[in-house]
Write a structure and sequence with these properties.
The structure is a homodimer of 356-residue chains. Chain A is an alpha/beta fold and 356 residues long. Chain A contains eight helices and 17 strands. The longest helix of chain A is centred in the last third of the chain and has 20 residues. Chains A and B meet through helix 5, strand 7, helix 6, strand 8 and strand 9 of A and helix 5, strand 7, helix 6, strand 8 and strand 9 of B.
């Protein structure tokens, strides 16, 4: 297989991540890195070129593929410039700031005959892939509810992500990942309606909280909720309980945190009074919401998955050599962008938006 | 103060609860109990009359007030019959199956000049009152998010609650309480839109899962989510974590379970990178969603409240004697019923519903 020779535009957080990964992968040669801020290039590893500017990068005949990890608002122009220079392109997510931008990028990359895909590496997140496996294997019967929650502790966003003009905010930073995961998990399902609450809680310019409900025609309602400032004082090892919950009429699966502790939980009895179990609480007696009687719950291990972000580029190498399809198709990223438009419209109007 | 002489219609779960409480309260005399099923009367306590039928109850001159704890679909007729018999009325929630029923009940009780209120005792739940106190005291700055979650383990509903014709289902059983709590917490706020997902997951006839989002004009989006079949295998003492979460731009408050463990959590720093903290996870590095660095979170105790369901009837005695207002006004229960209509319409159509 031909080694893929890649150059990176942008040596910020993701640029550094890419540098670390690509410089150690077989099948990829990391040729060089550019950044509009020369200071950002000072710590580029030995043996990797430091381009003075993007023109020098685009002109480098040793570069097959440009990996664009610049600020979100630069994706459009950089993808087009790279394509016009005859380079294949991997763009960071969100691929574009609007559908119009994306359609423009698609037109030019097609005209130039270059390969074009997007770095949606979170399709390889083990926590997500476990839930996808539970869904694909129909472990829970008819799934009705799927929820992904992410709570942070400091309201903080980083670097240029605090600026609206740069494409900042959590919808662009994490939202596109979380929505892409849900859509890719259930590829045949159409979204019938979208409802979203979006807030700038701590940040002035950009969103740092959102709750998005997607109603699908396969009977699932999926929720993604993210807040950079929804606080808890749980112990560190319990920090991120119930990152994912999926529930069906045959049980519930949950995943705690990114490192994917979790279980499938079922009941041994259904629709029978649990010994007429009546729990007295400070809010009076309850039959439905007390703790379970011993023995009524059973657990099973979650399916095992073995994926990591490196797999994104392993696929890229094979797909570049024609041995596989690219993991991320532009049509999929276009659907996510269209969904983001509906999400923002719902957040702005307070109304649900019909979709698909 | 005049002792309030009460008779109960319906000796099921709530009838028994009322019997236990009212028979031991000063200021109230529990005169008697009726039930359409004579077997239900076998365990009525000594010294309390067992009426052969409701007519006998209505005709009893020793009865001032009829407390209606029969199936939901019987509330309308029983309230009207009690009023026509000249009795004051306390009706269990939901007060009626429709706005039309309620308006009818209001007309007749006004015509008959009898007192009419509803048993929304969950306004006295300590878990709820703590959150209301946090809200009233503006402990969290500008609140944007309020969430009440209740997950059960067996899909079970009890007795007649499994039948649609009797007014069964969790929306009627718990939903009206949870919505009433939210509306009563923020009495000045108008609801601008309602979005709901309602399911029959395990039960054939009646709803046993719902997620309801209420957007208010005070900038709060409130969520109530309840599922009788959303399972977890947490230890018993952790069974019901995060029953309530309220978040504002100055912190988050949470309450675990009905017995109201919880904290107010704040951060010592805001909008600063937490030491550029980068946590490596199985899903790659994260700066926003790793566990907090030591010292960044501070906690405060939740406000103390001292309320219980008995307070509902303590208020009733005083209000009956003209010393206080009745805790629960019919106009408030009418608003909850109207909201329930919007909730069901949203659940049915999958669209948000404009409200107020």
């Amino acid at each position: 297989m031909k080694t893929v020779r890649i150059a990176i535009i942008g040596h910020g957080f993701m640029g550094h991540e890419h540098e670390a990964m690509l410089s150690e992968m077989d099948g990829i040669q990391l040729v060089g890195i550019s950044d509009i801020d020369p200071v950002q290039l000072e710590d580029v590893k030995k043996g990797i070129k430091r381009y003075q500017n993007n023109e020098e990068l685009f002109a480098d005949p040793e570069v097959d593929v440009v990996l664009i990890a610049a600020n979100n608002n630069q994706h459009h122009d950089l993808v087009i410039q790279a394509a016009r220079a005859g380079k294949d392109v991997i763009c960071e997510k969100p691929v574009a700031m609007s559908l119009e931008e994306l359609d423009d990028m698609v037109r030019v990359t097609e005209e130039c005959g270059v390969k074009f895909t997007v770095h949606h590496q979170r399709r390889m997140d083990p926590d997500f892939r476990i839930m996808k496996e539970v869904y694909d294997q129909k472990e829970l019967g008819e799934v009705y509810m799927l929820k992904n929650s992410l709570y942070g502790f400091n309201g903080n966003m980083h670097d240029w992500h605090i600026y609206k003009s740069e494409g900042g905010g959590m919808l662009y930073d994490w939202g596109v990942h979380l929505l892409d995961q849900i859509l890719w998990m259930m590829p045949g399902a159409k979204i019938t309606s979208v409802y979203a609450d979006i807030r700038n809680v701590i940040n002035e310019e950009v969103d740092d909280y959102f709750k998005i409900l997607l109603r699908f025609d396969n009977n699932v309602t999926a929720e993604v909720e993210l807040g950079t400032y929804v606080l808890t004082d749980k112990e560190q090892d319990k920090w991120f309980e119930r990152h994912w919950i999926m529930s069906g009429n045959k049980g519930t699966a949950y995943v705690d945190g990114f490192d994917s502790e979790g279980k499938i939980v079922r009941t041994t009895r259904l629709l029978s009074n649990a010994g007429n179990g009546r729990t007295m609480t400070a809010a009076g007696p309850t039959r439905s919401f007390g703790p379970p009687v011993p023995g009524i719950l059973t657990t099973e291990a979650l399916p095992e998955v073995n994926t990591c972000h490196r797999d994104y580029f392993e696929n890229y190498i094979k797909a570049y050599n024609g041995e596989e399809e690219f993991l991320v198709k532009i049509s999929e990223t276009r659907r996510v962008l269209a969904l983001m438009d509906a999400v923002r419209e719902s957040g702005r109007t307070g109304k649900s938006i019909a979709f698909e």
